[in-house]
Amino acid sequence: xxxxxxxxxxxxTGWLDSHGDYLYRYALAxxxxxxxxxxxxxxxxxxxxxxxxxxxxxxxxxxxxxIMKHKVLDYFRxxxxxxxxxxxxxxxxxxFENSGPxxxxxxxxxxxxxxxVTPAESQEFWETFDRCLSQLPQQMAIAFTLREIDGLxxxxxxxxxxxxxxxxSLMLHRSRAKLRHLLESEWFSRRAAAA
Length: 195
Prior knowledge:
By secondary structure, this protein is mostly helical. The protein has helices at about 5-10, 10-30, 35-50, 60-80, 125-135, 140-150, 155-160, 165-195. It is globular, with a radius of gyration of 20 Å.
């Protein structure tokens, strides 16, 4: 009789039952598209059944997440080569002074709030963060996620997204500024008002 553990390591159905939700959430947090996340999950499970088996190298989940990570990066590379993934040059919000001695500094009315709230343990904060991140242009959100969440080096991100280091730097600057602005308006301002 086959045990659940044995079934899980040899049968993709067992992997889906044991790790499917986790892998799906991992992909969805990065690609922000449910259909694409489902497709990446299927590709991950199919690759896991290939000639390069788990063979006890690491935990089963870690191994599957490693495969998923590569599938996500491949997806980003494909997107970077298509017209579906424009480098969005939307209006730079007027958060910074454009001239004078304070050029490049925050405008007084747009300066960041003091973040005295510590939301690290708050599920509500992370849901708000996710919502704010999804409001960024797609390429900015991907660059931010690859750098700040996945911890990839700038050179790797530039290769994946097929952009220059200067473009990445500008994209990360804009994404951080927009994300901070969104978080302040959707989370921190409301928290301060409620206090």
